[in-house]
Design a protein that fits this description.
Elements (H helix, E strand, L loop, with lengths): L2 E7 L5 E7 L3 H10 L3 E7 L2 H6 L6 H16 L4 H11 L3 H15 L4 H6 L7 H13 L2 H55 L8 H14 L3 H20 L2 H12 L4 H22 L4 H10 L4 H15 L5 H7 L4 H13 L2 H58 L1
Antiparallel strand pairs: 1-2, 1-3
Helix pairs in contact: 3-4, 3-8, 4-5, 7-8, 8-9, 8-12, 8-17, 12-13, 12-17, 13-14, 14-15, 15-16, 16-17
């Protein structure tokens, strides 16, 4: 008899995990339901090993798969036939094998959502939960279309953030390379000239020559590179802990320019994900747990987790979100109105659309503002080096005139 691992909710709302022998997955689900538990995940004990062999699939490929499957199911073709078609026409052979494996599981009697759950590296909890809700409601094609719209919106959001971050990173790297080249190759030439001066060099010039001498030593550059790598490793190790991840995400939200952008992105993701899940039929508590795991920011994840506990105890969603201090008053008030009028999904969608437009406007403003800032930085760095090099020459020229 095979062994399965499960995650289920008890009658009092607590989450319980464990292992259990059963004839099949459906038998274990019936067993847990007989005990008054609500199963959230049931996997074969060896499922995690299978998941590790799954290829990394791009969001664009997953988006195409979801939208095409929605079109096929909406056209009246059976799900199994649709999966076979997509397995044949998918360009990536590794992903085609995954789709074929899902088709084989469905043909063997498993539900579509259970077959997808075997591949957590490709299909997230949000994806699987929405598919399960679509299967239960008989609206699988509509849920697939909602998923495709959601993936497309999130991919567009990521693309905008990458475009905002790429330019300053590349420009700063170029500034550092130019400054390093001047210090390593140009400054030593001037240092030889200054060695014949019978006067003490100005402080900026001495500092610049000292930095050049340090970088020219065999240990200078490796020491700096090792220091940078060490700092990155320490930060990553600290960020791998829950407390460290919270503190780092809190620092990100307090950054002068990018903090507001990251906050708007987090709010947009929260609203869109929760709206998509509740519209597809996922219950509010299950949706909140998925939103917490996909928040992308530990500060917001903690606020969402606390709000879910309050909702479980009978409170509204708007009140604990307002108390967290992470959500603007407009967001919490719109959520409160949505709860009172029964239009929570529509309100969340409007919040998401509003913050998507805010993100676009902020990215455009940052792009136009970053360029002059970087030019100014380059002028300060390169100009400072040039001024430090010519200060002794100007002093000598003044002495000659005297």
């Amino acid at each position: 008899m095979p062994t399965f691992t499960y995650v289920a909710r008890t009658k009092d709302g607590k989450r319980e995990t464990g292992k259990q022998n059963a004839e099949n997955r459906q038998a274990l689900i019936r067993m847990l339901q007989g005990k008054g538990m609500v199963p959230e995940r049931v996997d074969a004990a060896g499922g995690t090993q299978r998941a590790r062999r799954d290829p990394k699939v791009k969001t664009s490929e997953l988006l195409v798969f979801t939208r095409q499957l929605s079109t096929i199911v909406n056209a009246g073709l059976p799900l199994l036939q649709g999966l076979d078609i997509l397995a044949e026409q998918t360009e990536d052979p590794r992903y085609a094998n995954v789709i074929q494996g899902i088709a084989d599981d469905v043909e063997a009697g498993e539900t579509f959502s259970d077959a997808l759950r075997k591949h957590p590296r490709i299909y997230s909890d949000l994806f699987v939960s929405m598919i399960r809700a679509g299967e239960a409601s008989g609206n699988l094609d509509g849920v697939l279309m909602q998923l495709a719209d959601y993936l497309e919106a999130m991919e567009d959001l990521k693309r905008r953030i990458r475009s905002a971050m790429t330019y300053p990173v590349v420009a700063l790297s170029m500034i550092l390379l130019i400054a390093t080249g001047l210090v390593v190759f140009v400054v030593p030439q001037f240092a030889e000239i200054f060695a014949g001066f019978d006067r003490e060099l100005p402080a900026p010039t001495r500092i610049l020559i000292g930095a050049s001498d340090f970088l020219k030593q065999w240990y200078g550059m490796p020491l700096i590179i090792a220091g940078v790598i060490g700092a990155v490793v320490i930060v990553r190790m600290y960020g791998s802990t829950k407390a460290g991840r919270f503190q780092l995400d809190l620092i990100k939200l307090r950054l002068p320019v990018f903090g507001k952008l990251l906050r708007k992105v987090a709010i947009s993701r929260f609203a869109r994900t929760l709206s998509t899940l509740t519209r597809s039929g996922v219950n509010i508590l299950g949706a909140m747990e998925i939103v917490e795991r996909t928040a992308g920011n530990e500060v917001f994840a903690r606020a969402i987790s606390n709000a879910a506990d309050c909702v479980r105890n009978g409170e509204t969603l708007a009140d604990p979100l307002a108390r967290s201090g992470q959500f603007p008053a407009m967001v919490t008030r719109m959520i409160g109105v949505g709860e009172k009028t029964g239009a929570l999904e529509q309100m969340l969608q409007k919040i998401s659309d509003f913050y998507d437009s805010e993100v676009r406007a902020t990215v455009d403003a940052l792009t136009s503002m970053i360029e002059p800032i970087l030019i100014l930085m380059m002028g300060i760095v390169v100009g400072g080096i040039v001024v430090a090099l010519f200060m002794p020459i100007l002093q000598l020229s003044g002495l000659v005139q005297q």
